[in-house]
Amino acid sequence: MTWYFMASCERQIYRRKVYYIAAFLVYALLAVMVPSIFRDDRITLAVMVGYTILIGYALFCRSKAVLLYYGIYQVMILAGQTAVILICIQIFRKLEGGSQLFLGNCVLCVKIVMELMLTFFMSMWVRRKTASKAEKGQLAAMIVLLAATVFLVGAVMTVSDVYTQLHGYTLVSAVFLVLILINLDFLYLFRYMFHANELESEMKLMNQKTELSYRYYTDLEQKYQESRKAIHDMKNHLQAVEALCNAGKNHEGKTYIDDLYHMLNVMGEQYYSDVKMLNIILNEKIKQAQNRNITVRAEIGETELDHMRDMDITAIFANLLDNAIEVAEASGEKWIHMKMDTVHEFVVVSLENSVGDAQTCAKHGREKSHMGVGLKNVKEALERYHGTIRNVRESDRYSVTLMIPK
Questions:
Q1: Listed residue (272, 275, 286) closest to 215, CA to CA
Q2: Cα 22 to Cα 199: distance, rounded to the nearest angstrom
Q3: CA distance linking residue 75 with residue 54, whole number of Å
Q4: For residues 116-136, b (16+ Cβ closer than 10 Å) or e, as one string?
Q5: Rounded distance, CA 47 to CA 66, Å?
Q6: DSSP characters for 63-108?
């Protein structure tokens, strides 16, 4: 059940099956041995919560919010077990006769059914909902919920022995059930908060993509109008060049032709890639870099990104190029080199840019840009396609390498 719940949550890590088998064999041994040795549910709770979070971090997901999910699940399972046992004892005490072994087996069956139902409902509520975008306030709320639940479960267990002898099991059982309902309710709310964060992030990316596309097509329209004017004036230009050549002014004629070439090149849109969104981003960002006197060299081979959404392409390449432009602008040489090609079954992207000294970068606030929100968005987009990112800071350059499975 624990494996099922953890696999139902957001997952980032996939390892060989033997690691999972070994981890859950140890989990089973702990679940049996710790209660038998210490005979204290509080110790059992601490061990199982800690070990579940540990194997979750190593084998399933590194998100803090998801790790808190694992801890809350263990607390709720123990609270549910205790509540069921106390309720069953209360009911069976009212029954006259009956084998103790039979009644014990009935309690065990009811407990297992409760655990299965609780696992099913918790898994359904948190299934694959992105929790990695949790904000600090939401993470704090989850930590408070987990800590408060652990405290209350421990406190009730501490006083239950004396209280139940005087007043019975009804109130104690009700407390555990209420704790379970409160945790389920909060998990339900957390799920929608994380979903709202995800939608907000998607909306920002959509706006960024729309803005890039709008500027790109507005620029195309402007260049189209300029090209119409140039075509309309081309006859006059050709006549002027012919007149200069006939007059023996070959140097002036060549200069005139060079000016015409330059005019046509400016009006033309650079073609970098078959991927439409990537082509838009490269045209826009390279133009921004050139306007800031940054030398850009882009070598784009044949690549296929059909399996990627336009918003993810925007999140990856727009943010990387924005970071590169920002840092290169503060450096002395001001250059950006980008290479992109297909190697075996991977799309490999290499982006390098010049950097200034640490003092200059710190003064302009550029040093942190590569590790800021933009790079976080890049990593989140890459994770959807099991891609990887590697960044290296050297004395005169900063390099980022991406590997995206096709």
A1: 286
A2: 38
A3: 15
A4: eebbeebbebbeebbbbbbee
A5: 18
A6: -HHHHHHHHHHHHHHHHHHHHHHHHHHHHHHTS-S--HHHHHHHHH
- Judge contact between 352 and 315, C-beta under 8 A: no
Identify whether the C-beta of residue 125 lies closer than 8 Å to the C-beta of residue 76.
Answer: no
Query: Which of 97, 106, 246, 90 lies closest to 170 in space, CA to CA?
Result: 90
- CB-based contact 304:406 (threshold 8 Å): yes
Give which of 273, 378, 394 is closest to 327, Cα–Cα.
394
**CA-closest candidate to residue 153, choices 214, 71, 227, 209:** 71
User: In sequence order, what are the residues at sequence separation of 6 or more whose Cβ sits closer than 8 angstroms to the Cβ of residue 273?
Assistant: 279, 282, 300, 303, 340
Radius of gyration (Cα) for the chain, nearest Å? 32
pTM for the structure as a whole:
0.50
pLDDT, one tens digit for every residue, the chain (406 residues): 999 999 888 887 888 999 999 999 999 999 999 989 988 888 888 899 999 999 999 999 888 888 888 988 888 888 888 878 777 777 776 666 567 777 778 788 888 888 888 888 888 777 755 555 566 777 787 788 878 877 877 777 777 666 666 666 677 777 877 887 887 788 777 777 777 777 777 777 677 666 766 666 566 666 656 666 666 666 676 777 778 787 877 777 778 777 766 665 555 557 778 888 888 888 888 888 988 999 999 998 888 888 888 878 888 888 899 889 988 988 888 999 999 999 888 999 999 999 876 544 544 444 444 444 567 778 888 888 889 998 888 888 899 999 999 8
